[in-house]
Each structure stands twice: as C-alpha cells, then as structure tokens.
Amino acid sequence: MAPIHVLRCCQRGLAWIPVIFIALVVCWSYYAYVVELCIFTIQSIGEQGKFFVYLFFFHLSFIMFVWSYWKTIFTKPSNPSKEFCLPKAEKERYEKEERPESQQDILWRAASNLPLYTRTGAGAIRYCDRCQVIKPDRCHHCSACDMCVLKMDHHCPWVNNCVGFSNYKFFILFLAYSLVYCLFIAATVLQYFIKFWTLCRRKSAENCPKNELPDTHAKFHVLFLFFVAAMFCISILSLFSYHLWLVGKNRSTIEAFRAPVFRTGSDKNGFSLGFKKNIVQVFGDQKKYWLLPVFTSQGDGLSFPARLVNTDVEQPTVTLATDISTSPLSESQNRLLNNEVDANNIGGHVENQTLKSGERDHPESETIIYFDKES
Ligand SMILES: [Zn+2]
Ligand SMILES: [Zn+2]
C-alpha cells in the first residue's frame, strides 16, 4: 500500500476520536444516572415516585439525543448533481485552456441553463477544480471530506461529518437535545449533588452527623455527573443560540463569515425570506415533524429562493421563489437596488461595504470551518 493511502487511513481513523470520546461520556452518563443515581441512591432512600418519573424523562431525552446525533453523523453530505458537471468535450477544452478568460467563457456557456445566482468575489462562475464541477449556490468544497457539499455550513469534528443541506436540521436537533439532556441531568442531580457535597465536607471535618444518603461510590459518580452536565450545558448553549440565530437569518456559518456575492454585489441577507419562511426552509412546513430527526428541509439543495433573483435578467427563472416579490425590502436590499445602476462601476466598493457590515454581525463560533478560497 502506498504511503499516501496509509496516511489517509490513519487520518480517517483519528478523525473518529472526538466522536468516540462523546460516545464514551454519554455511555458513562447513562450508567451514572440510571445505576448510581436512580437505583443505588434514589431507590435506597425510598423515593419511589421520583425514581419512575426521573427514569421516564431521562430515557425520553436520551433517545432523542442519540437519535439526532446518529443522524448527524451518518447522513452523507449531498453533492452537486450531474447537471453541474461540465460535458466531456467542454471539460477537455477547459483543461487544455490556459487563459482564465477563456476558461470563464466555457463555464459561462455551461452555466447558462443552471439556476445560479452567486458568483466569486470577482464576479466569475464558481468552479471547483478539485471535483471538476460548477458549484451550485451555497455549495462549498470541504477539504476535510474532499468533496463539494451542498449548502455547506461547516465541517464538525464532533460528528466527524460535514454539516450541510442534508443534515443541518439533524445538527440543530442534536444541539437542542444534547442541551435538554444536560439540563435535565443537571437539574435533577443538583439536590443529590448538594447532599453528597455537604456529606463529603463533614466527613473531612471528622464531625459528620448521620446523613440520609448512603456513603458509597455513587457519591463520586453523582458529583462528576453534575460537573460534566453543567460544563456541557454552558458550551452547547452558546453554539445552539448562534445556530438558531443563523436559521432565523437563513445564513450558513460560512455565509455569516463571508456574505454570498450576487450579480448586484454581496448581500449577507441574500437568501433570507423572512423569519418564518427561513425556519420553514430548514424544518419544513409540517410542524409535527419539526422536533423529529427526519429529513423535512425544503428544496433540493441545488438552488435556493433568493430575494433578488427577479432582478437578475441573465439567469433562468427559479420556480422555488414564487412569492418573494411580495416580501418587504430589507435595508441591504434597498441599498443594493439603489446602487444597481452603478454596481458595475463601483462593484468592489459596494461589496467591501457590505462585507464590513456583515463582519460586525456575527458572534464568535466554536466550530471549525474548512472551505476553499475563492478568488
Ligand atoms: Zn469540490
Ligand atoms: Zn467536511
């Protein structure tokens, strides 16, 4: 086996370490809660009512958490369809061609029937040399997965997968249910944590009165359970609130850092259809499925309703956006429409202004992003 293949195999194996770490912590938390807390502690002091209620809600949150985590990890990222590949003859011409302008001509011709509204910063068709494919709107190349991923959000090491169009809903639910799981554990363990904590302190002071809790190894698990649940709660809460904000704005993490560039210039709100419609884009129009990790996101991931598409006369009409013209214009949209006449002359200037205002907008995220640079 060639050394490069061995290296790649090792990299693939090592990439599972964060997932295995999370899985081990979850398995231990299950044992500590069910066996050490519920069976050894709560049952031994005769609190039967609490025993059944705690076990029921614990298992409910545990199942939803594991289900959504599983779906986020094992849902394959969606890739651009065949229509976005260059025809064989065109591809050969593109590869032989050395001048960038002629290469762009080939791409413009090939893209004439594709629903594309975003461009590179220089106004060119976005093309991935690695995958040899014209990138659909919101699609980016992930260097960790080595493929182009539709509506790529970020590559998440904690799920060892790309978070994108195919699993973004699962990822949001994974964050939501892991938060519920940790909050439930922290809230129900707190009273036993305090009892065990005071028991420990009195023991060390060697004047311990008779406590109602048994002084067993359960003490160690309960104390750690509270610390771990509280720690995860704090870290997940910030990430979860950031992604809820992104869903409300219909922005991916990548787009929050670098606004998509349309023909009229870059617009960080270019895909925003209003708060309610933005949520429906990710969670679907049937509310009964919103909390279940089953795929209900709207569209095919290849094209997205954008608010300025009807001003882009050079491109084919996208049927997805039927009622966008009725939505009120946003501040940025108004600005772009006002600047439309001069956009060709001052395109770079407009783009820089929008990017600057976009940069102020996003809070820091804990996620790691891998995506290619576009010139
Ligand atoms: Zn690619
Ligand atoms: Zn990836």
TrEMBL record:
GO molecular function list: protein-cysteine S-palmitoyltransferase activity
Keyword DNA repair: no
EC numbers on record: 2.3.1.225
InterPro entries: Palmitoyltrfase_DHHC, PFA4/ZDH16/20/ERF2-like
Subcellular location: Membrane
Gene name of the encoded protein: zdhhc20
Keyword Lyase: no
Reactions this protein catalyses: L-cysteinyl-[protein] + hexadecanoyl-CoA = S-hexadecanoyl-L-cysteinyl-[protein] + CoA
Domain topic, free-text comment: The DHHC domain is required for palmitoyltransferase activity.
Name of the protein: Palmitoyltransferase
Protein family membership: Belongs to the DHHC palmitoyltransferase family.
UniProt topology in membrane: Multi-pass membrane protein
Stretches that traverse the bilayer: 15-39, 51-70, 170-194, 220-245
Keywords: Acyltransferase, Membrane, Transferase, Transmembrane, Transmembrane helix
Cellular component, GO, one term: membrane
Range of residues in the leader sequence: none
Domain Palmitoyltransferase DHHC stretches: 126-257
Organism expressing this protein natively: Takifugu rubripes (Japanese pufferfish)
